[in-house]
Amino acid sequence: MRANALKAGEGIFIASAAMHDIRSIRENPAAFDAGLARRGLAPDAQSLIELDAGLRSVATEMQAGQARRNEASKAIGQAMAKKDMATADALKAEVAALKEGLPALEARERELSAALTDRLLAIPNLPADDVPEGEDEAGNVEVARWGEPRVFDFAPRDHADFGPALGLDFEGAAAMSGARFAALRGGMARLHRALGQYMLDTQTGANGYEEVNPPILVRDEALFGTGQLPKFADDLFRTTDGRWLIPTAEVSLTNLVRESILTEAQLPIRFTALTPCFRSEAGSAGRDTRGFIRQHQFEKVELVAITTPDRSEEEHRHMLASAEGILEALGLPYRRMLLCSGDMGFSARKTFDLEVWLPSQNCYREISSVSNCGDFQARRMNARYRPEGEKGTRFLHTLNGSGLAVGRTLVAVLENGQREDGSVVVPEVLRGYMGGLEVLEPR
RNA sequence: GGAGAGGUGGCAGAGUGGUCGAAUGCGCCGCACUCGAAAUGCGGUUUACGGCAACGUAACGUGGGUUCGAAUCCCACCCUCUCCGCCA
User: Which ipTM value was assigned to this complex?
Assistant: First the structure.
């Protein structure tokens, strides 16, 4: 039992309710419901539209009342300026009567507006048209494969078995922190560091991402913006002062543009960061309990792109290539999966997962997830840009992906590079980061 | 942690209960003048929501409250700055 669930009224509810655009739902309810259906969700448009209609009728009535009140108040001011107290007092009495029902209308309007916002905040992004139909991961489509899984002349072992001899210390970490923690020691720590540095250097180099060292403790608003809240509070760690540990640097990097209006010339913006990530893993009891695959704390090099709608597909491809390049440089076989409508994360409209080959499990395991969120997060964050030669503003598109998860990459390097004697070959591109070390030997 | 100051339009900056969505300056856009430019003059220049429109409503950090009426008064929170303390 976790205590993270936001109590009613506790959360920060974004004032200018953007998220899903109620106007477009109103104009095309069938398309909205069809999108929900692809997500495996029940139709909701009808009920949202009724709520919205109720809200607008109350709002109209409220505004009419306010208009009358404002008009009379002005007249009172004018009368008082002329020292005509009799008229002023008469008007005051009149407005007082007028005002009878107004507070109730205002309260009702607030209530309905908050209710609509709450409903809209809890609805996931709708899948893009080219996302395949499917209920769960069985519906994902393999779209590419790179590299040949190595043929072993001995039975490849699980990293959890041969890792400890190389400095992967589960017991020491468990003694102080509990399950799902590990301490890396000696060459293992350095290999992990080398991986992170190599990834960061590559993303900031040829791939054009700006390095950021962001906060990893954030407030409610940030998590509402990227979509972890309000629905997934139980997956997160919360501090005693009400902040949250980020589950991914996507939160920190994307929120860098919250509530801002960018010029088209500033785009695209590409951010990368190497940060610790924290996840409660509340819903994954029993899964991946052995080894370094699923930890409460892990490091990840995150990629985030902020762009215009017409360029977000292109940016998605670039991000995918940026993540895949790391796997290829490390010589790790992987496959690219296009996630089906039922398996995508809350904020995504289209996601590719990269899965790396793990010989001990004889299968591919997720090591990166690269998503185009369209304008979904931008609406929640109120992040806009000014199109050149146009008057108003439009919502940005945001994308995020791992480039890559450092801990899982370490696992892949260990397992794919293991030798029968329990040593591990250090990939060539990392050797410069390891003082030229070519092989990690058992201690 | 203690003490103090402050958050107003793209920017600077006035406004401390009444025709204030907000003076003035800068910037920006248009027009005039000019061969052209500068200078000058005139006009314009926030956003969101509802409405076919006329128009209405809301917004002066955020959220509440007082009042016939709030940028202005009260409460809470957020943020910035200055000084002191502590600290990697």
Answer: 0.81
